Structure formats: C-alpha cells, structure tokens
C-alpha cells in the first residue's frame, strides 16, 4: 500500500509565513534608498539644510535694519528652528552610522515626517515672504540704494536652498510611512 | 490502489491568488476614504479650492494698484492657474459621480498628485509673498491710509484657504500612490 501511494502522493510543503518575505522585501527595498534616517544620504541632506540655513541667518544678521521688517525677522526665527532640527537629526544620523544601528521604525518615520513637514513649510513660507519683499524693494520701488538688497536676496536664496534640501527628506519619509 | 489512497490523501486546495485579497483590501480601504478622485469629498475640496481662489482673484482685481506690486500679480497668476486646475478636476469628479465610474487608477493618482503638489506650492508661495507685503505695508510702514490693505489681506487670506483646501487632496493622493 505504502509502496503504491508514495510515488503519486508528494508531501505538500508548508507555505512560508506571509509576513516573512514581505518583511525581507521591505528590508531590502529600504536599505537601497539613501536619504532615509540613519543613512549617509540623510546625513548629507541634514548637513546641507544646516549649512545653508546657518549661512542664511548669518547673512541676514549682518544687515542692521532687518529687524524693521517683520518678514525678515520671521525668516530668521523659522530658519533658526530649522537649523536646530536639522542639526539634531544630523547628530542622530551620525550616531546611527557609527554604531550601525537602524532607525527604520515606524514611530521614527512618523516623527521625522511630521517634523520635516511642519518645519519645511514654515521655512518655505518665510523664504517666500522675504522674496516678495526683496522683489518689492528691488524691482517695484527701486530702493536698493538705501537698502541691503544683495544681502536680503542672498539670505532668502540660502533659505530656499535649505528648504529644498528638506523636501527629499520629507517626501521620502512620508512615502516610506505610507508604503509600510 | 485507488480505494486505499483516497481516505488518506485529501485534495489540497489551490491557494488563492496572492494579489486577490490584497486588491480586495485596497479596494475596501480606498472606498472608505473620502477626498480621493471621484468621491464627494474630492468634489467638495475642489469646489472649495475653486470658490476661495475665485474670491481671492476678484477681491484683488477690485484694487486699482495691485499691478504695481510683483507679488500681487504673481498671486493673481498662480491662483488663476489653480482655479482652472480645481475646476477641471471638479468636472472630472462630477462626471465620475454621475456615471458611477471609478478613478482609482495609478496613472490618475500620479497625475493628480504631481499637479496638486506643484500648483499648491505655487499658490502657497504667492500667498506667503503677498502676506509678507501686506504685513510690511500695514505693520512695518503703517501706510494703510494710502493702500487697500483690507482688500490685499482678504485676497491673501482667501488664497491661503484655497491652498489649504488643496493640501488634503495632495496628501491623500500621495499616500494612496505610495501605499499601492
């Protein structure tokens, strides 16, 4: 009996755990993407945000009359918050790279996404408001002779670059959060 | 031979298609979320964007001197593009609701996400630039007596509301695109 049934009946292999391959897939996919927390790409982005934000504040600080314009004060405040945020996350990235610890947890992605979203929106708003005023002074009123137009424009441009460097971090974290 | 093997060997059911339950899950989850293309929530958001954008342009248009400020001209241009976009998508939503056709295709989500992202960023930038100038005129220079401060502020506020009504559409489409 057994000799007959053996050739026709093959043991059915137990199906693999459903979450096993998915997790492996996610792990592989997440490892490939530079820019996520704990990667060199992320560290590069955070340092870019920090450096350009710092330059923006320093250039704006060298003008004596930026305090008389609300938008410029707001720019300095928003970029200050942003560079503190970027510096903190750069330190976290350096720590993760040094001790080879992963930061791929949902709570971290959620925190970083919300933080990046709020802070980049604030910085972008400040940069746009400052850009509106520099264009008003330069083009519309033509009063660059009595104002530090070049410095205002440089500070605004640096804030824009800092803000644009924050966008990939936000979009990447948001994408990862949604695809988990 | 056959009578022996029958009781011990049970037919193994074919495993369900792997994409079947996932698709069903996505379909159920997507049906629940109002605000996606082709839903009443989406139509409400698009009409809100359109109405507030239109009010913003009309209010700004009633001022005689908005053309002398670049940021206000940019606001009118950006919001014009935005209301055309919102109106087009509102028409698409109405069509989808009337003929009960689904718009849940990846290419549609991708198109709407990119469009919403770019246009809401442009509108937000224009609103921020206008806000910076209205604050400059009102608070910093205190020249509201010779300018239409209230109308400028109203137009800017309407543009902000229109832009904020676009954010849920963008985030929802982006989230759906990423989770597919």
Description of the structure:
The structure is a homodimer of 180-residue chains. Chain A is an all-alpha fold and 180 residues long. The first copy, chain A, has one domain. Helices cover 77% and strands 0% of the residues of chain A. The first copy, chain A, has helices spanning 2-8, 19-32, 40-61, 70-98, 106-140, 149-179. The radius of gyration of chain A is 25 Å and the shape is elongated. The N and C termini of chain A lie far apart (51 Å). Mean pLDDT of chain A is 82; it is low at 1-5 and 17-29. The A-B interface holds A 1, 4-5, 8-9, 12, 15, 68-71, 124-126, 128-133, 135-136, 139-140, 174-175, 178-179 and B 1, 4-5, 8-9, 12, 15, 68-71, 124-126, 128-133, 135-136, 139-140, 174-175, 178-179.
Summarize this structure as a short list of keywords or feature phrases:
0% strand, homodimer, mainly alpha, CASP-like protein (chains A, B), elongated, 180 residues, 6 helices, transmembrane (chains A, B)
In short:
Two copies of one chain form a homodimer. The first copy, chain A, has 180 residues and is mainly alpha-helical.
């Amino acid at each position: 009996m057994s000799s007959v049934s053996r050739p026709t009946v093959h043991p059915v292999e137990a199906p693999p755990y459903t979450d096993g391959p998915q997790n492996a897939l996610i792990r592989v996919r997440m490892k490939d993407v530079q820019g996520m927390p704990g990667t060199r790409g992320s560290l590069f982005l955070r340092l870019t945000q920090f450096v350009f934000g710092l330059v923006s504040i320093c250039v704006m600080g060298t003008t004596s009359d930026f305090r008389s314009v609300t938008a410029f004060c707001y720019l300095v405040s928003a970029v200050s918050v942003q560079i503190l945020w970027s510096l903190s996350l750069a330190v976290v990235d350096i720590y993760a790279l040094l001790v080879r610890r992963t930061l791929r947890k949902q709570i971290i992605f959620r925190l970083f996404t919300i933080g990046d979203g709020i802070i980049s929106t604030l910085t972008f708003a400040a940069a746009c408001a400052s850009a509106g005023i520099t264009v008003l002074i330069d083009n519309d009123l033509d009063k660059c002779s009595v104002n530090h137009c070049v410095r205002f424009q440089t500070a605004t441009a640096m804030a824009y670059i800092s803000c644009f460097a924050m966008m990939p971090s936000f979009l990447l974290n948001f994408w990862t959060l949604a695809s988990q």
